[in-house]
Design goal:
With 382 residues, the chain is an alpha/beta fold. 36% of the residues lie in helices and 18% in strands. Bound molecules: S-adenosyl-L-homocysteine and iron/sulfur cluster.
């Protein structure tokens, strides 16, 4: 797989696959056939691709593979959630979570091993940054999940939903990493996810979640507009600078303007604002009032995320009653609000608990969370 002469087809967006096939003198429909074998039927052996000509199969055999990253560990939760730990080499691992619901099956994928943004409430942020995932490694998470779930003995739901003939009907980039800081590789993966001959997911069923990489929000709007979730977490720059350190580079006013530009291209007519509920930090009545003012500037829906604690964070989840009152203040102002249910917490699969293991990290990224941690702790004890 690491042989540079060998191409992993999981990493080839439709246009690149067509170029490869054309280079061998093949017609574009050959590339489409191949997309269907690999991504729709989950086949990795070229000898099993029976409607491809024998000499075409021989070329594929000589120059290509279909290979997802190796699975290090798989866990099943009592609520049906599943988690896979994929080995990324050099001591790094990333995590992928499948969340079944009545009408859909959502896969939460990772885009980087670690993350440079270093939000103090996120266990990925504490690990520092190791490296960007390739398109093949991102798509490999989806390819593997569809295959593993189709084989699962747990009944009809895992054979697909009305929305999708395959188990995964929705993909969210809410695992480890900041997808818009790995733009090119994420874009290749998105193109495969929405291609009719590959995964065929509607753009509304693929969601990129970002901490607010403003220039890349504009590029995504131009290149492949899918549903967008923005991790807001604070209603003013002073607090957001500390909770989402990237805010120092791209402050709220810039971010909100980018959201409005995105809406001109988006497949949905709203942006989802994610807002993590941290006890005593961002959950007061005053914060809710400020948030209403922010929300008036963008057509949006709110997703309140109860903080999932992990040992090093030193932070606490807002009490349920506080979350209810906070949500009520927003709904009373006419906003649409949901409170995210925690799923899979018995297997550490809940938001922000995805740790994987990142050993090969850079040192620059490690310094940031320390500063942020100190500021938050000070505030807590004040
Ligand atoms: N980097 C992107 C996507 C990955 S994080 C982003 O920040 O949007 C996906 C979501 O999980 C984000 O909204 C993030 O704020 C949230 N999250 C991170 N740590 C969490 C924790 N400990 N508890 C609950 N949600 C968390
Ligand atoms: Fe990175 Fe998102 Fe975690 Fe922040 S919340 S550290 S941006 S993965």
């Amino acid at each position: 797989m690491s042989d540079p002469e060998v191409t992993n087809l999981l990493g080839l967006a439709p246009a690149a696959l067509e170029a490869l096939v054309r280079g061998w003198g093949g017609k574009p429909f050959r590339a489409r056939q191949l997309l269907r074998w690999v991504h729709q039927r989950g086949v990795d052996q070229f000898s099993d691709m029976t409607d491809l000509a024998r000499d075409f199969r021989a070329l594929l055999q000589a120059h290509c593979v279909v290979a997802a990253p190796p699975v290090q560990l798989e866990k099943h939760s009592a609520d049906g959630t599943r988690k896979w730990l994929f080995d990324m080499g050099r001591g790094n691992a990333i995590e992928t979570v499948y969340i079944p619901e009545d009408d859909r099956g959502t896969l939460c994928v990772s885009s980087q091993a670690g993350c440079t943004v270093a939000c103090p409430f996120c266990s990925t942020g504490y690990q520092g940054f190791s490296r960007n995932l390739t398109t093949a490694e991102i798509v490999g998470q989806l390819w593997h999940a569809n295959r593993a779930l189709a084989r699962a003995p747990e009944g009809a739901r895992l054979e697909g939903t009305a929305a999708s003939p395959r188990p995964v009907s929705n993909v969210v980039f809410m695992g480890m990493g900041e997808p818009l800081l790995n733009y090119d590789q994420v874009l290749g993966a998105l193109r495969l996810m929405v291609d009719d001959h590959a995964y065929g997911l509607s753009r509304r069923r693929v969601t990129v979640s970002t901490s607010g990489v403003v220039p890349m929000i504009d590029r995504l709007a131009a290149d492949c507009p899918v549903a967008l979730a923005v991790s807001l977490h604070a209603p003013n720059d002073e607090l957001r600078d500390r909770l989402v350190p990237l805010n120092r580079k791209h402050p709220l006013a810039e971010l909100l303007a980018a959201c409005n530009r995105y809406l001109e291209h988006a497949p949905r007519d709203f942006i989802t604002f994610e807002y993590i509920m941290l006890d005593g930090i961002n959950d007061t009545d005053a914060h809710a009032r400020q948030l209403v003012d922010v929300a008036r500037q963008v057509r949006c829906k709110f997703n309140l995320i109860p903080f999932n604690p992990f040992p090093q964070s030193g932070l606490r989840r807002s009490p349920p009653q506080r979350i209810r009152l906070f949500a009520r203040q927003l709904t009373d102002a006419g906003l649409v609000v949901t409170v995210r249910k925690t799923r899979g917490d018995d297997i550490e699969a809940a938001c922000g608990q995805l740790a994987g293991e990142v050993q090969d990290r850079t040192r620059i990224a490690e310094r940031l969370p320390d500063r942020a941690r100190v500021i938050i702790r000070k505030k807590e004890t004040a």
